[in-house]
Q: What sequence folds into this?
C-alpha cells in the first residue's frame, strides 16, 4: 500500500488522478475468446480448416463444454475485472444434431446460464470455416447459390442468437462476421466475388434489431492459408460497406500488412463512426495470432482509445490461439496485458501532452513522454489487482501450474 501511495503522489505531480483511472479501468469489459481453450476446434467439428492454423500440441486442451468452461473459470479467477466471453457458433451446446443454418438461441442457453451466474457478457461470431460447405474457402461469395444461401441463413441465425444474448444479459452483444473467402492464386475476376459478398450481406442485415442488445460488425483480412493472392473481404471492402450501412468495422490487429499498425487507424475510424470493434492479437511476420504482449503497439492501441475518449465506444476482444503453451496461461497473459495497456494509457497526462503538441513544444513533449516511461506504473497495477481480488505479479502463474498438475495433465 505504501508503494501505491508513493506512486499515486508521483502521478499527481504530473496531473494524473490515479483513483479516477482505476475507476475507468474497472468499467472496461474485454471479450475473452473461448477458442484459445481448445485450439479453435469447437464442438461440431473435429478439425480446423479455412485459412486458419493452430500450431503446437501442448497437453490438456479442452475437449468438451465442461472442460472449456472450467478452464475459463480458472483464467477469469486470475484476471482483474468483470468481462465478456466471445463465442463462435461452432461452440453450440446441444444434444441434437443441428447444422449451422438451423442454430437457435436455445442451442446456446447453457452459455447464457454460465454468463449470468458469473456476471459476464457474451459476444458472438458466425463460424464460416471448418465445415463441408466451406471446403473451397468460398462461403458468402460462392457462385453456388445453395452454398451461399446456407451461409446467409447461418449469419442470420447468428444475429438472432447474439441479440438474445444482449437481451438476456443486459449487455450489448457484438456479432462479428469474418469469412475465409479468397483464392490461392491470381484471380481472373476480383469484382464478381465481392458483388456476391455485398449482395449476401445486404440480405443478412435486412432484419433490424434493437441496438441496445445487438451491435453488428464486419471483419477484414489481407490473406490466409490457401487464399494468399486474393481475399474477398478486404479492408477497403468492409470499411466502405460498414460506413454505408451503419455497421461497425472490426479491425483485427493481425489482419494487415506487416508494416501497418492498427493504432494509427483508430482515430480516423472514430471520426466517422460512432463505434469501433477490435480483435487484438499479435502478428509475427504474418497473421499468426500470437498471444499479445505488453509491447509498444499494444500500448499505442490503448493510448489511442483513451486519448479519443472512446473506452465506451470501442468493443475490445482478444483473438489469438497458441497450442504450444499452456492455454490458460495464454488467456491470462493476454487479458492482463490489454488491461495493463489501458491502465498505462489512463496514467498518462494526456491533456498536458496534447497541449505541448498544439503549442509546438516538441522538445518538451519528447522529454516528458520519455520520462513517463519510468514512472511506477507497476505499483499501480499491483494495487489494482489487489482491490480486484486477483494475484499480483507472477503469483497467478503458480495457480496455473497447480491447475495443470491437478486437472490438465489428467485429460
A:
Amino acid at each position: 500500500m505504501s508503494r501505491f501511495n508513493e506512486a499515486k503522489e508521483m502521478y499527481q505531480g504530473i496531473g494524473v488522478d490515479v483513483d479516477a483511472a482505476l475507476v475507468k479501468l474497472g468499467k472496461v469489459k474485454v471479450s475473452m475468446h473461448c477458442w484459445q481453450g481448445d485450439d479453435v476446434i469447437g464442438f461440431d467439428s473435429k478439425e480446423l480448416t479455412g485459412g486458419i492454423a493452430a500450431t503446437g500440441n501442448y497437453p490438456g486442451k479442452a475437449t468438451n463444454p465442461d472442460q472449456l468452461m472450467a478452464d475459463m473459470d480458472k483464467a477469469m479467477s486470475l484476471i482483474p475485472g468483470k468481462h465478456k466471453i466471445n463465442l463462435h457458433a461452432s461452440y453450440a451446446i446441444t444434444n441434437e444434431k443441428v447444422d449451422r443454418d438451423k442454430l437457435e438461441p436455445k442451442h446456446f442457453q447453457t452459455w447464457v446460464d454460465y454468463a449470468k451466474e458469473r456476471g459476464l457478457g457474451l459476444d458472438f461470431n458466425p463460424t464460416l470455416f471448418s465445415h463441408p460447405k466451406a471446403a473451397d474457402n468460398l462461403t458468402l461469395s460462392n457462385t453456388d447459390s445453395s452454398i451461399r444461401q446456407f451461409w446467409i441463413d447461418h449469419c442470420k441465425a447468428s444475429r438472432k442468437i447474439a441479440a438474445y444474448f444482449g437481451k438476456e444479459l443486459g449487455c450489448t452483444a457484438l456479432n462479428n462476421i469474418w469469412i475465409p473467402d479468397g483464392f490461392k492464386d491470381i484471380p481472373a475476376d476480383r469484382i464478381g466475388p465481392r458483388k456476391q459478398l455485398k449482395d449476401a450481406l445486404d440480405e443478412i442485415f435486412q432484419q433490424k434489431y434493437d441496438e441496445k442488445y445487438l451491435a453488428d460488425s464486419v471483419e477484414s483480412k489481407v490473406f490466409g492459408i490457401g487464399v494468399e493472392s486474393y481475399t474477398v473481404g478486404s479492408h477497403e471492402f468492409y470499411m466502405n460497406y460498414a460506413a454505408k450501412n451503419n455497421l461497425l468495422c472490426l479491425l483485427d490487429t493481425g489482419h494487415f500488412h506487416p508494416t501497418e499498425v492498427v493504432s494509427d487507424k483508430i482515430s480516423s475510424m472514430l471520426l466517422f463512426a460512432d463505434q469501433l470493434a477490435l480483435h487484438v492479437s499479435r502478428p509475427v511476420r504474418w497473421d499468426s495470432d500470437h498471444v499479445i504482449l505488453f509491447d509498444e503497439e499494444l500500448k499505442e492501441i490503448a493510448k489511442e482509445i483513451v486519448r479519443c475518449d472512446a473506452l465506451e465506444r470501442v468493443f475490445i476482444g482478444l483473438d489469438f490461439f497458441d497450442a504450444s503453451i499452456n492455454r490458460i496461461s495464454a488467456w491470462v497473459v493476454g487479458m492482463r496485458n490489454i488491461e495493463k495497456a489501458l491502465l498505462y494509457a489512463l496514467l498518462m497526462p494526456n491533456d498536458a501532452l496534447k497541449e505541448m503538441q498544439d503549442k509546438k513544444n516538441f522538445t518538451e513533449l519528447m522529454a516528458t513522454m520519455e520520462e513517463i516511461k519510468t514512472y511506477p506504473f507497476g505499483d499501480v497495477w499491483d494495487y489494482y489487482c489487489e482491490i480486484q481480488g486477483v494475484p499480483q505479479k507472477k503469483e497467478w502463474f503458480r495457480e496455473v501450474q497447480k491447475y495443470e498438475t491437478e486437472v490438465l495433465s489428467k485429460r
User: Anything to note?
Assistant: The chain has a mean pLDDT of 96. The longest helix spans residues 145-169.
